[in-house]
Amino acid sequence: MEEALETRQETVEQEASAGDKDGKKEKKSLGREILEWVLTILVAVAAALVIRSFLFEPIRVDGASMNDTLVNGEVMFVSKLDYASTWLSLPWQSDETKESMPRLATGLGAPKQFDVVIARYPGRGDTNFVKRLIGMPGDRVKIEGGYLYVNDTKYDEPYVSDEYRVNGGSNGLSFEEVYIPKKGDTLTLEYTDENRNRIGVYVNGEGWGWRGISSEAVAADGDRLAYHKDGKLLLNSEDITADTEKIVSLVGKEFSLEQDLYFVMGDHRNNSNDSRAQGPITRDMIVGHVRFVFFPFNAWRGVE
What we know:
- The chain is an alpha+beta fold.
- The chain folds into two domains: 2-49; 56-293, Ribbon (Umud Fragment, subunit A), CATH 2.10.109.10.
- 22% of the residues lie in helices and 32% in strands.
- It has five helices and 22 strands.
- The strands form four sheets. Strands 1, 2, 5, 6, 19, 20, 21 and 22 form an eight-stranded antiparallel sheet that branches.
- A hairpin with a 2-residue loop joins strand 8 (147-150) and strand 9.
- The radius of gyration is 30 Å and the shape is flat.
């Protein structure tokens, strides 16, 4: 009997010892704790990036260029599901580097005329601008007497305050009809005067009077031409703006545009840095669709 009790006591002690060992195994080391926290943070950051890139993003209005539709300081809900362009760049990269990185067009739909969008401009990196999409690829756009005409159709634009229709401001309001190039249009360099002293850019045989075309064009022999808003002319990524001989050799050569272009403007027509100054933008410069304002909470409303 005593032997049986001793055996039972030994068994209990062994189980208790095993439990202590198991308890020690379950206790996490400081290194493991830190690793788990780091992994948790990385997963959270990755999830946030996916949400901002492919689902939605809150963006704050900065400035008066969209008055009275949007007011400075309001926070917008910007949908990426409708359509977006994700830039595969990092925050600390330079604007020039960011613009040279690959871009991924995403979303379930496509931009529509008069959508309020988040746009970016050549030379400004990933700086966001909120504007209204006025001209689609292939449209002819002009403003006359403060009113918008697209393909000869006049639009009253009820979202534009009458006080913003009068001429004035740093960029003015009225401009003659301008064509918005589309993919497949023919781009050429031609002499603009009888003395053959000046060379201009032509789209489908018509003089292009805007600041520049950011979309690249390609010739049948593979040469690639890009005419930027700052007046730079690039041939196969080489700046030939000051190379008169090379420019002259391109006169009359046909290039085909590779991307559609879009024309954006602010609703505050007297106070907006938009396509009137920057020129049309490519599809990958449209990074989201503004759907509604959610802050301040008492100003909650949809954006049409």
